[in-house]
Protein backbone atom coordinates (compact mmCIF):
# COMPACT_ATOMS: atom_id res chain seq x y z
CA UNK A 1 0.00 0.00 0.00
CA UNK A 2 2.87 2.31 0.87
CA UNK A 3 4.54 1.45 -2.43
CA UNK A 4 1.35 2.22 -4.34
CA UNK A 5 1.05 5.60 -2.60
CA UNK A 6 4.67 6.43 -3.35
CA UNK A 7 4.19 5.51 -6.99
CA UNK A 8 1.07 7.61 -7.18
CA UNK A 9 2.88 10.59 -5.73
CA UNK A 10 5.80 10.07 -8.06
CA UNK A 11 3.62 9.85 -11.15
CA UNK A 12 1.27 12.65 -10.19
CA UNK A 13 1.35 15.44 -12.77
CA UNK A 14 2.88 18.76 -11.84
CA UNK A 15 0.48 21.42 -10.67
CA UNK A 16 -0.69 23.46 -13.60
CA UNK A 17 -1.29 27.16 -13.21
CA UNK A 18 -0.95 30.54 -14.90
CA UNK A 19 2.69 31.17 -15.82
CA UNK A 20 4.39 34.04 -14.00
CA UNK A 21 4.31 37.15 -16.16
CA UNK A 22 6.81 38.94 -13.94
CA UNK A 23 9.34 36.12 -14.32
CA UNK A 24 9.47 36.79 -18.06
CA UNK A 25 9.35 40.56 -17.65
CA UNK A 26 12.35 40.90 -15.32
CA UNK A 27 15.02 39.58 -17.78
CA UNK A 28 13.59 41.84 -20.49
CA UNK A 29 13.81 44.81 -18.13
CA UNK A 30 17.43 44.00 -17.26
CA UNK A 31 18.33 43.99 -20.96
CA UNK A 32 16.53 47.30 -21.43
CA UNK A 33 18.62 48.79 -18.61
CA UNK A 34 21.77 47.64 -20.42
CA UNK A 35 20.83 49.60 -23.53
CA UNK A 36 18.87 52.61 -22.26
CA UNK A 37 20.27 55.96 -23.43
CA UNK A 38 18.01 58.52 -21.82
CA UNK A 39 18.04 57.59 -18.13
CA UNK A 40 16.57 54.96 -15.89
CA UNK A 41 13.74 56.80 -14.14
CA UNK A 42 11.38 56.80 -17.13
CA UNK A 43 12.22 53.17 -17.88
CA UNK A 44 11.28 52.11 -14.33
CA UNK A 45 8.19 54.31 -14.37
CA UNK A 46 6.91 52.50 -17.48
CA UNK A 47 7.70 49.11 -16.00
CA UNK A 48 5.93 50.09 -12.79
CA UNK A 49 2.83 51.27 -14.63
CA UNK A 50 2.59 48.18 -16.82
CA UNK A 51 3.53 45.41 -14.39
CA UNK A 52 3.34 46.46 -10.76
CA UNK A 53 1.19 49.47 -9.91
CA UNK A 54 -2.12 47.57 -9.78
CA UNK A 55 -0.89 44.90 -7.35
CA UNK A 56 -1.35 44.73 -3.59
CA UNK A 57 1.22 46.58 -1.50
CA UNK A 58 2.94 43.38 -0.32
CA UNK A 59 3.14 42.10 -3.90
CA UNK A 60 4.57 45.40 -5.11
CA UNK A 61 7.35 45.25 -2.53
CA UNK A 62 8.15 41.64 -3.40
CA UNK A 63 8.30 42.42 -7.12
CA UNK A 64 10.58 45.42 -6.59
CA UNK A 65 12.94 43.24 -4.56
CA UNK A 66 13.09 40.71 -7.40
CA UNK A 67 13.85 43.45 -9.94
CA UNK A 68 16.62 44.88 -7.76
CA UNK A 69 18.15 41.44 -7.21
CA UNK A 70 18.15 40.77 -10.95
CA UNK A 71 19.87 44.10 -11.69
CA UNK A 72 22.54 43.46 -9.02
CA UNK A 73 23.24 39.96 -10.32
CA UNK A 74 23.46 41.06 -13.96
CA UNK A 75 24.96 44.55 -13.72
CA UNK A 76 26.53 44.86 -10.28
CA UNK A 77 25.65 46.24 -6.85
CA UNK A 78 26.62 49.81 -7.80
CA UNK A 79 24.64 50.17 -10.99
CA UNK A 80 22.97 53.63 -11.10
CA UNK A 81 19.60 52.16 -12.11
CA UNK A 82 19.20 50.83 -8.57
CA UNK A 83 18.61 54.38 -7.34
CA UNK A 84 15.34 54.46 -9.28
CA UNK A 85 14.11 50.88 -8.85
CA UNK A 86 11.95 51.22 -5.76
CA UNK A 87 8.35 51.12 -4.62
CA UNK A 88 6.50 54.03 -6.21
CA UNK A 89 3.21 53.66 -4.37
CA UNK A 90 3.35 57.26 -3.08
CA UNK A 91 4.40 58.57 -6.49
CA UNK A 92 2.17 56.47 -8.65
CA UNK A 93 -0.99 55.87 -6.72
CA UNK A 94 -3.88 56.15 -9.14
CA UNK A 95 -4.44 59.79 -9.98
CA UNK A 96 -7.69 61.73 -9.84
CA UNK A 97 -9.10 64.31 -12.20
CA UNK A 98 -11.33 65.62 -9.39
CA UNK A 99 -10.85 65.35 -5.63
CA UNK A 100 -13.81 63.06 -4.90
CA UNK A 101 -13.97 61.07 -8.11
CA UNK A 102 -14.23 57.26 -7.82
CA UNK A 103 -14.78 54.60 -10.46
CA UNK A 104 -14.71 50.84 -10.91
CA UNK A 105 -16.44 49.84 -7.70
CA UNK A 106 -14.74 52.44 -5.52
CA UNK A 107 -11.23 52.14 -6.96
CA UNK A 108 -9.60 55.41 -7.96
CA UNK A 109 -8.73 55.54 -11.68
CA UNK A 110 -5.20 54.63 -12.74
CA UNK A 111 -3.00 57.24 -14.37
CA UNK A 112 -3.91 55.98 -17.83
CA UNK A 113 -7.59 56.19 -17.00
CA UNK A 114 -7.08 59.65 -15.50
CA UNK A 115 -5.42 60.86 -18.69
CA UNK A 116 -8.18 59.40 -20.84
CA UNK A 117 -10.82 61.06 -18.66
CA UNK A 118 -9.01 64.38 -18.78
CA UNK A 119 -8.75 64.25 -22.58
CA UNK A 120 -12.48 63.52 -22.81
CA UNK A 121 -13.21 66.49 -20.55
CA UNK A 122 -11.02 68.77 -22.67
CA UNK A 123 -12.73 67.52 -25.82
CA UNK A 124 -16.10 68.38 -24.28
CA UNK A 125 -14.90 71.86 -23.33
CA UNK A 126 -13.50 72.42 -26.81
CA UNK A 127 -16.74 71.25 -28.42
CA UNK A 128 -18.67 73.63 -26.18
CA UNK A 129 -16.32 76.46 -27.13
CA UNK A 130 -16.86 75.85 -30.84
CA UNK A 131 -20.63 75.59 -30.38
CA UNK A 132 -21.06 78.94 -28.64
CA UNK A 133 -18.90 80.63 -31.27
CA UNK A 134 -20.94 79.07 -34.07
CA UNK A 135 -24.20 80.10 -32.38
CA UNK A 136 -22.96 83.66 -32.10
CA UNK A 137 -23.30 83.71 -28.33
CA UNK A 138 -19.69 84.71 -27.77
CA UNK A 139 -16.86 86.14 -29.81
CA UNK A 140 -13.80 84.01 -30.44
CA UNK A 141 -11.86 85.94 -27.83
CA UNK A 142 -14.60 85.57 -25.22
CA UNK A 143 -15.05 81.86 -25.94
CA UNK A 144 -11.31 81.25 -25.69
CA UNK A 145 -11.20 83.04 -22.33
CA UNK A 146 -14.03 80.90 -20.92
CA UNK A 147 -12.38 77.76 -22.28
CA UNK A 148 -9.05 78.56 -20.62
CA UNK A 149 -10.75 79.39 -17.31
CA UNK A 150 -12.71 76.12 -17.22
CA UNK A 151 -9.67 74.11 -18.32
CA UNK A 152 -7.55 75.78 -15.62
CA UNK A 153 -10.00 74.56 -12.96
CA UNK A 154 -9.75 70.98 -14.24
CA UNK A 155 -5.96 71.11 -14.41
CA UNK A 156 -5.62 72.71 -10.96
CA UNK A 157 -7.63 69.85 -9.44
CA UNK A 158 -5.11 67.39 -10.88
CA UNK A 159 -1.97 69.27 -9.90
CA UNK A 160 -3.32 70.01 -6.40
CA UNK A 161 -3.86 66.27 -5.97
CA UNK A 162 -0.21 65.65 -6.89
CA UNK A 163 1.26 68.15 -4.46
CA UNK A 164 2.93 66.58 -1.45
CA UNK A 165 2.13 63.12 -2.73
CA UNK A 166 4.50 62.64 -5.66
CA UNK A 167 7.97 64.01 -6.31
CA UNK A 168 8.52 67.18 -8.32
CA UNK A 169 10.27 65.33 -11.14
CA UNK A 170 7.30 62.98 -11.42
CA UNK A 171 4.97 65.97 -11.67
CA UNK A 172 6.94 67.10 -14.71
CA UNK A 173 6.88 63.60 -16.19
CA UNK A 174 3.14 63.28 -15.61
CA UNK A 175 2.53 66.69 -17.14
CA UNK A 176 4.38 65.59 -20.27
CA UNK A 177 2.17 62.50 -20.50
CA UNK A 178 -0.98 64.60 -20.25
CA UNK A 179 0.32 67.06 -22.87
CA UNK A 180 1.31 64.24 -25.23
CA UNK A 181 -2.16 62.72 -24.90
CA UNK A 182 -3.68 66.08 -25.84
CA UNK A 183 -1.41 66.23 -28.90
CA UNK A 184 -2.50 62.76 -29.98
CA UNK A 185 -6.13 63.83 -29.59
CA UNK A 186 -5.48 66.89 -31.83
CA UNK A 187 -6.08 69.26 -28.91
CA UNK A 188 -2.62 70.82 -28.80
CA UNK A 189 -3.65 74.37 -29.63
CA UNK A 190 -1.98 77.34 -27.93
CA UNK A 191 -4.89 77.93 -25.54
CA UNK A 192 -4.80 74.34 -24.27
CA UNK A 193 -1.05 73.91 -23.90
CA UNK A 194 -0.69 77.30 -22.22
CA UNK A 195 -2.84 75.97 -19.36
CA UNK A 196 -1.67 72.35 -19.12
CA UNK A 197 1.80 73.02 -17.73
CA UNK A 198 3.58 72.07 -14.52
CA UNK A 199 3.11 74.65 -11.72
CA UNK A 200 5.86 77.28 -11.73
CA UNK A 201 7.00 76.56 -8.18
CA UNK A 202 7.49 72.89 -9.04
CA UNK A 203 9.41 73.79 -12.19
CA UNK A 204 11.61 76.05 -10.07
CA UNK A 205 12.24 73.29 -7.51
CA UNK A 206 13.28 70.84 -10.22
CA UNK A 207 15.50 73.48 -11.82
CA UNK A 208 17.30 74.12 -8.53
CA UNK A 209 17.85 70.39 -7.96
CA UNK A 210 19.14 70.04 -11.50
CA UNK A 211 21.48 72.99 -11.01
CA UNK A 212 22.87 71.40 -7.84
CA UNK A 213 23.54 68.13 -9.65
CA UNK A 214 25.32 69.99 -12.46
CA UNK A 215 27.52 71.79 -9.91
CA UNK A 216 28.35 68.46 -8.28
CA UNK A 217 29.16 66.98 -11.68
CA UNK A 218 31.55 69.84 -12.44
CA UNK A 219 33.55 69.04 -9.30
CA UNK A 220 34.49 65.61 -10.66
CA UNK A 221 35.14 65.88 -14.39
CA UNK A 222 36.21 62.67 -16.09
CA UNK A 223 39.54 62.41 -17.91
CA UNK A 224 39.45 61.05 -21.46
CA UNK A 225 43.12 60.30 -22.20
CA UNK A 226 42.38 58.47 -25.48
CA UNK A 227 40.26 61.19 -27.07
CA UNK A 228 42.60 61.44 -30.08
CA UNK A 229 42.31 57.70 -30.70
CA UNK A 230 38.52 57.92 -30.42
CA UNK A 231 38.45 60.65 -33.08
CA UNK A 232 40.86 58.71 -35.32
CA UNK A 233 38.75 55.55 -34.95
CA UNK A 234 35.68 57.47 -36.03
CA UNK A 235 37.49 59.00 -39.01
CA UNK A 236 38.83 55.62 -40.11
CA UNK A 237 35.24 54.29 -40.17
CA UNK A 238 34.07 56.87 -42.73
CA UNK A 239 33.87 56.07 -46.47
CA UNK A 240 36.84 57.22 -48.55
CA UNK A 241 37.14 59.02 -51.88
CA UNK A 242 39.61 61.25 -53.71
CA UNK A 243 36.78 63.10 -55.49
CA UNK A 244 36.70 66.89 -55.52
CA UNK A 245 33.83 68.88 -54.02
CA UNK A 246 32.21 69.11 -57.45
CA UNK A 247 32.27 65.33 -57.88
CA UNK A 248 31.45 64.43 -54.27
CA UNK A 249 27.76 63.66 -54.81
CA UNK A 250 28.60 61.35 -57.71
CA UNK A 251 31.12 59.50 -55.53
CA UNK A 252 28.59 59.25 -52.70
CA UNK A 253 26.02 57.73 -55.07
CA UNK A 254 28.45 54.99 -56.09
CA UNK A 255 29.39 54.17 -52.50
CA UNK A 256 25.76 54.22 -51.33
CA UNK A 257 24.70 51.71 -53.99
CA UNK A 258 27.12 49.12 -52.58
CA UNK A 259 26.94 49.93 -48.86
CA UNK A 260 25.51 47.27 -46.54
CA UNK A 261 23.38 48.01 -43.48
CA UNK A 262 26.26 47.34 -41.07
CA UNK A 263 28.56 49.72 -42.95
CA UNK A 264 25.91 52.45 -42.91
CA UNK A 265 25.39 52.08 -39.17
CA UNK A 266 29.15 52.33 -38.70
CA UNK A 267 29.17 55.60 -40.69
CA UNK A 268 26.35 56.88 -38.49
CA UNK A 269 28.10 55.97 -35.24
CA UNK A 270 31.25 57.73 -36.42
CA UNK A 271 29.33 60.83 -37.49
CA UNK A 272 27.73 61.01 -34.05
CA UNK A 273 31.12 61.67 -32.44
CA UNK A 274 32.61 63.75 -35.24
CA UNK A 275 29.62 66.12 -35.51
CA UNK A 276 28.08 65.90 -32.04
CA UNK A 277 24.64 65.18 -33.47
CA UNK A 278 22.10 62.79 -31.96
CA UNK A 279 21.45 59.39 -33.64
CA UNK A 280 18.02 60.47 -34.87
CA UNK A 281 19.53 63.61 -36.39
CA UNK A 282 22.30 61.63 -38.08
CA UNK A 283 20.13 58.85 -39.51
CA UNK A 284 16.75 60.50 -40.04
CA UNK A 285 16.08 64.18 -39.54
CA UNK A 286 19.30 66.13 -39.92
CA UNK A 287 20.95 67.55 -43.02
CA UNK A 288 24.58 68.54 -43.60
CA UNK A 289 25.91 70.88 -46.27
CA UNK A 290 29.37 72.30 -46.99
CA UNK A 291 29.86 75.75 -45.48
CA UNK A 292 30.95 78.40 -47.98
CA UNK A 293 33.94 80.53 -47.04
CA UNK A 294 33.01 83.92 -45.58
CA UNK A 295 29.47 82.68 -44.96
CA UNK A 296 27.08 85.31 -43.56
CA UNK A 297 24.47 83.36 -41.60
CA UNK A 298 21.94 86.23 -41.64
CA UNK A 299 22.27 87.37 -45.24
CA UNK A 300 23.52 84.07 -46.73
CA UNK A 301 26.37 85.83 -48.52
CA UNK A 302 29.29 83.56 -49.31
CA UNK A 303 32.66 83.61 -50.98
CA UNK A 304 34.11 80.90 -53.20
CA UNK A 305 35.21 77.57 -51.75
CA UNK A 306 34.22 75.73 -48.58
CA UNK A 307 35.47 75.70 -45.03
CA UNK A 308 37.59 72.75 -43.95
CA UNK A 309 36.51 72.35 -40.34
CA UNK A 310 32.92 73.60 -40.28
CA UNK A 311 29.69 72.55 -42.01
CA UNK A 312 26.09 73.78 -42.06
CA UNK A 313 23.64 71.64 -40.10
CA UNK A 314 19.84 71.70 -40.04
CA UNK A 315 17.26 69.38 -38.50
CA UNK A 316 17.88 69.94 -34.78
CA UNK A 317 15.67 67.64 -32.69
CA UNK A 318 14.44 67.83 -29.07
CA UNK A 319 13.98 71.61 -29.20
CA UNK A 320 10.16 71.47 -29.34
CA UNK A 321 10.39 74.61 -31.45
CA UNK A 322 11.45 76.75 -28.50
CA UNK A 323 12.37 80.34 -29.25
CA UNK A 324 16.10 80.87 -29.50
CA UNK A 325 16.92 77.28 -30.45
CA UNK A 326 18.15 76.18 -33.87
CA UNK A 327 14.79 74.55 -34.65
CA UNK A 328 14.16 74.48 -38.44
CA UNK A 329 17.21 76.66 -39.09
CA UNK A 330 20.60 76.00 -40.62
CA UNK A 331 23.60 76.83 -38.44
CA UNK A 332 27.35 76.31 -38.50
CA UNK A 333 28.93 73.55 -36.43
CA UNK A 334 32.59 72.60 -36.08
CA UNK A 335 33.51 69.06 -37.08
CA UNK A 336 36.32 66.82 -35.85
CA UNK A 337 37.24 65.58 -39.33
CA UNK A 338 37.68 67.47 -42.61
CA UNK A 339 34.33 68.76 -43.83
CA UNK A 340 34.58 66.87 -47.11
CA UNK A 341 34.79 63.54 -45.25
CA UNK A 342 31.77 64.49 -43.14
CA UNK A 343 29.65 65.59 -46.09
CA UNK A 344 30.57 62.47 -48.06
CA UNK A 345 29.57 60.10 -45.24
CA UNK A 346 26.36 61.98 -44.52
CA UNK A 347 25.41 61.96 -48.23
CA UNK A 348 26.14 58.23 -48.53
CA UNK A 349 23.91 57.58 -45.54
CA UNK A 350 21.06 59.59 -47.09
CA UNK A 351 21.36 58.12 -50.59
CA UNK A 352 21.53 54.48 -49.48
CA UNK A 353 18.51 52.21 -49.63
CA UNK A 354 18.39 51.87 -45.84
CA UNK A 355 18.94 55.59 -45.47
CA UNK A 356 15.85 56.33 -47.56
CA UNK A 357 13.82 54.22 -45.14
CA UNK A 358 15.36 55.83 -42.04
CA UNK A 359 14.51 59.28 -43.38
CA UNK A 360 10.81 58.42 -43.27
CA UNK A 361 10.84 57.09 -39.70
CA UNK A 362 9.50 58.80 -36.61
CA UNK A 363 11.73 58.96 -33.54
CA UNK A 364 9.97 55.97 -31.97
CA UNK A 365 10.18 53.91 -35.17
CA UNK A 366 13.89 54.65 -35.45
CA UNK A 367 14.55 53.69 -31.82
CA UNK A 368 12.75 50.38 -32.36
CA UNK A 369 14.73 49.74 -35.55
CA UNK A 370 18.24 50.44 -34.27
CA UNK A 371 18.41 51.42 -30.60
CA UNK A 372 16.15 49.05 -28.68
CA UNK A 373 16.21 45.33 -28.04
CA UNK A 374 16.26 42.96 -29.81
CA UNK A 375 17.92 45.20 -32.43
CA UNK A 376 21.43 45.74 -31.07
CA UNK A 377 23.39 46.50 -34.27
CA UNK A 378 23.96 50.18 -33.43
CA UNK A 379 25.02 49.42 -29.87
CA UNK A 380 27.25 46.52 -30.94
CA UNK A 381 29.10 48.60 -33.53
CA UNK A 382 29.51 51.54 -31.16
CA UNK A 383 30.88 49.22 -28.47
CA UNK A 384 33.31 47.61 -30.92
CA UNK A 385 34.57 50.99 -32.11
CA UNK A 386 34.81 52.98 -28.92
CA UNK A 387 34.59 50.79 -25.79
CA UNK A 388 38.32 49.82 -25.71
CA UNK A 389 39.24 53.55 -25.66
CA UNK A 390 36.43 54.83 -23.42
CA UNK A 391 37.05 55.69 -19.72
CA UNK A 392 36.70 52.52 -17.66
CA UNK A 393 34.42 52.48 -14.58
CA UNK A 394 35.91 51.94 -11.12
CA UNK A 395 34.37 50.39 -8.02
CA UNK A 396 34.64 53.63 -6.05
CA UNK A 397 33.08 55.82 -8.75
CA UNK A 398 30.41 58.27 -7.65
CA UNK A 399 26.99 58.31 -9.26
CA UNK A 400 28.04 61.13 -11.60
CA UNK A 401 31.25 59.36 -12.59
CA UNK A 402 29.41 56.09 -13.20
CA UNK A 403 26.92 57.85 -15.45
CA UNK A 404 29.66 59.75 -17.29
CA UNK A 405 31.59 56.57 -18.02
CA UNK A 406 28.67 54.92 -19.76
CA UNK A 407 29.18 54.72 -23.52
CA UNK A 408 26.03 56.51 -24.71
CA UNK A 409 25.04 58.88 -27.50
CA UNK A 410 24.61 61.68 -24.97
CA UNK A 411 28.09 61.16 -23.54
CA UNK A 412 29.69 61.02 -26.99
CA UNK A 413 27.92 64.29 -27.74
CA UNK A 414 29.41 65.75 -24.56
CA UNK A 415 32.91 64.60 -25.56
CA UNK A 416 32.46 66.16 -29.00
CA UNK A 417 31.60 69.49 -27.36
CA UNK A 418 34.67 69.31 -25.11
CA UNK A 419 37.02 68.57 -28.02
CA UNK A 420 35.38 71.23 -30.19
CA UNK A 421 35.80 73.71 -27.34
CA UNK A 422 39.54 73.07 -27.28
CA UNK A 423 39.93 73.48 -31.03
CA UNK A 424 37.38 76.06 -32.12
CA UNK A 425 36.10 78.28 -29.31
CA UNK A 426 36.97 81.93 -29.85
CA UNK A 427 38.61 83.64 -26.89
CA UNK A 428 35.76 86.15 -26.77
CA UNK A 429 33.15 83.46 -26.00
CA UNK A 430 32.60 81.63 -22.71
CA UNK A 431 32.72 77.87 -22.62
CA UNK A 432 29.04 77.57 -21.64
CA UNK A 433 27.95 79.86 -24.48
CA UNK A 434 30.07 77.90 -26.95
CA UNK A 435 28.59 74.58 -25.81
CA UNK A 436 25.07 76.01 -26.18
CA UNK A 437 25.89 77.29 -29.66
CA UNK A 438 27.44 74.15 -31.15
CA UNK A 439 24.89 71.83 -29.54
CA UNK A 440 21.97 73.90 -30.82
CA UNK A 441 20.52 74.98 -27.47
CA UNK A 442 19.00 78.35 -26.69
CA UNK A 443 21.38 81.20 -25.99
CA UNK A 444 19.84 81.55 -22.53
CA UNK A 445 19.82 77.82 -21.76
CA UNK A 446 23.25 77.79 -20.14
CA UNK A 447 22.22 75.15 -17.58
CA UNK A 448 21.52 72.59 -20.30
CA UNK A 449 24.81 73.42 -21.97
CA UNK A 450 26.80 73.08 -18.75
CA UNK A 451 25.25 69.66 -18.14
CA UNK A 452 27.36 68.49 -21.09
CA UNK A 453 30.57 69.58 -19.35
CA UNK A 454 31.51 66.12 -18.07
CA UNK A 455 35.00 65.56 -19.42
CA UNK A 456 38.47 67.04 -19.72
CA UNK A 457 41.34 66.24 -22.05
CA UNK A 458 44.43 65.53 -19.92
CA UNK A 459 46.95 66.68 -22.53
CA UNK A 460 45.23 70.01 -23.16
CA UNK A 461 45.92 72.94 -20.85
CA UNK A 462 44.10 75.80 -22.56
CA UNK A 463 40.90 76.24 -24.52
CA UNK A 464 40.39 78.24 -27.68
CA UNK A 465 41.70 78.06 -31.22
CA UNK A 466 45.43 78.47 -30.58
CA UNK A 467 47.95 78.14 -33.37
CA UNK A 468 49.42 75.11 -31.64
CA UNK A 469 46.14 73.20 -31.66
CA UNK A 470 45.12 74.20 -35.16
CA UNK A 471 48.60 73.40 -36.38
CA UNK A 472 48.30 69.92 -34.92
CA UNK A 473 45.03 69.40 -36.75
CA UNK A 474 46.54 70.57 -40.02
CA UNK A 475 49.56 68.31 -39.49
CA UNK A 476 47.36 65.27 -38.81
CA UNK A 477 45.32 66.00 -41.93
CA UNK A 478 48.49 66.32 -44.02
CA UNK A 479 49.81 63.00 -42.66
CA UNK A 480 46.53 61.30 -43.53
CA UNK A 481 46.53 62.71 -47.07
CA UNK A 482 50.16 61.58 -47.55
CA UNK A 483 49.23 58.10 -46.33
CA UNK A 484 46.42 57.92 -48.90
CA UNK A 485 48.58 59.44 -51.62
CA UNK A 486 46.23 62.40 -52.02
CA UNK A 487 46.92 66.06 -52.74
CA UNK A 488 46.95 68.62 -49.93
CA UNK A 489 44.99 71.09 -52.06
CA UNK A 490 41.30 71.65 -51.28
CA UNK A 491 39.17 71.50 -54.44
Mean pLDDT: 80
Indicate the proportion of strand residues.
under 5%
Gross morphology is: globular
Poorly predicted runs are: 1-18, 89-105, 319-325, 463-470
Order of adjacent strands in the largest pleated sheet = 2-3-4
Radius of gyration: 27 Å
User: What's the CATH superfamily of the largest domain, by name?
Assistant: Telomere resolvase
How many angstroms separate the termini?
98 Å
Tell me about the biggest sheet?
Answer: 3 strands, antiparallel
Explain this structure to me?
- With 491 residues, the protein is mainly α.
- 58% of the residues lie in helices and 5% in strands.
- It has helices spanning 2-11, 21-35, 41-52, 57-75, 89-92, 111-134, 140-162, 168-184, 190-195, 200-218, 227-237, 248-258, 261-275, 279-285, 339-351, 353-359, 363-371, 377-386, 399-404, 409-424, 431-439, 446-450, 467-484; strands at 222-223, 287-292, 306-314, 331-334, 455-456.
- Strands 2-3-4 form a 3-stranded antiparallel β-sheet. A two-stranded parallel ribbon has the order 1-5.
- The longest helix is centred in the N-terminal third of the chain and has 24 residues, at 111-134.
- The model is unreliable at 1-18, 89-105, 319-325 and 463-470 (pLDDT under 50).
Question: Secondary structure elements and their pairing?
Answer:
Elements: H1 2-11, H2 21-35, H3 41-52, H4 57-75, H5 89-92, H6 111-134, H7 140-162, H8 168-184, H9 190-195, H10 200-218, E1 222-223, H11 227-237, H12 248-258, H13 261-275, H14 279-285, E2 287-292, E3 306-314, E4 331-334, H15 339-351, H16 353-359, H17 363-371, H18 377-386, H19 399-404, H20 409-424, H21 431-439, H22 446-450, E5 455-456, H23 467-484
Parallel strand pairs: 1-5
Antiparallel strand pairs: 2-3, 3-4
Helix pairs in contact: 2-4, 6-7, 6-8, 8-10, 11-13, 12-15, 13-15, 13-18, 13-20, 15-16, 20-21
Amino acid sequence: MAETTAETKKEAPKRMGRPSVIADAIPQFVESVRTVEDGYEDLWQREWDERISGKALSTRSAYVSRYRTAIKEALGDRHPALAFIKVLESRDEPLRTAPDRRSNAGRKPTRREAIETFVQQVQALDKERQAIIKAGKKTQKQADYLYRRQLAKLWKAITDDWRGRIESTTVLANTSLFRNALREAKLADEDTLSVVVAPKDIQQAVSETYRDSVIEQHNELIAVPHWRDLVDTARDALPKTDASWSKLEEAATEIAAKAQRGELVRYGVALGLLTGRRPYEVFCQGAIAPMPLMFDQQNHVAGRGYETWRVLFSGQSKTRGREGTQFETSFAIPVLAPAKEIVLAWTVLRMSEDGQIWRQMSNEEFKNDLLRLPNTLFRDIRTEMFAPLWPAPALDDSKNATEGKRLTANNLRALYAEIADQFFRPKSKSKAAFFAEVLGHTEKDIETATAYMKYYLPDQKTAGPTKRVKGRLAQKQAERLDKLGLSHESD
